[in-house]
Amino acid sequence: DPRGQRFVEKYIQKTDTSSAFSMYLQKIYQSMTSLDSEEKIRESSRKKRTAQEWYKRGILLSVQKKYREGIQAFSHAISLDPQMAKAYQNRGLSYYYLGEYGKALEDLDKALALDSNLVQVYNARGLVHSALHHYSRALQDFNQALSLSPRASSFYVNRGNLYLKMKKLDQAQKDFIEARKRNPENLYAYVGLGKIAFRQQDYQKALNLFQMAWNGGLDLPIVYNGIGLVLMKMKKRKDAIMYFNAAILKDPKFFQAYLNRGILFVLEKKYQKALQDFNKVLSLKPRYSKAYLYRGEVFRLLGKKEQAARDFRKYLILQPNSPQRGQIEAFLRHLQSSKRKE
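Now predict its structure.
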């Protein structure tokens, strides 16, 4: 009882501490303070257990792709145990999946400040930097992750995908092969090798690799989209549309499938359907430059020159060094000249 403890404290302060009764009270006081310390320890333990429970709940929600709810759970864990580095790590990863890259970097940096040996944090931060096109920083993080865990097959895949973005196909291929060597069941390595074969225009090889990933159980939109792209290049357009549809059915927010299906509709001269797909891409990714370029081209083909010009200008703002710049500027000058003549 706190009141009893305060009474004993006051009595000891006023009493000769050499008396037997005073010594007896001192023992009671020491017992009380000892019990109080033990209670604080138990309370701290309860908080840590509660933080751990919130952390586990966050992991469960993340596995279910309920990232926003997972973030709330990780935040509860952090409020109870601000030193829980893994809670920052996984909250940062959740922000990454939601495309909130600034918040993701803040959390991942904090996790590393608490524990610089968390190998998964380097991997996760590499993914964020890659998404932000900070390729040199991403490469540093993936290299650090691999230096700490050189057998991690998934890290080789992530670095391989980064090399693909950097158009370093030879290095990407080495990483995907190493990933497959480290873990023959890592089907993402087959997807990576399929992407390389596609870029090398070896479409049959690319198709085989994507199908190997799918047959192995990788039932993901990225695989359906890859197969669709290959079939489109092989001029099997009806089959390609089926695979793009499957990718969208699997994940209605997988914008790449809408983009590629839109391109296919342009080839089929189904311009209204193409517009619908490019509009969908821009609703999901408002700054995705290629969608403005392709939609602008559809508007041009439909004779809607003002709408085409608006999309082309937006594209050039997002991609000022585009190889298409000269051609687009020629179209814009011609349009302006036609207006003056009118």
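The two ends are 93 Å apart (CA to CA).
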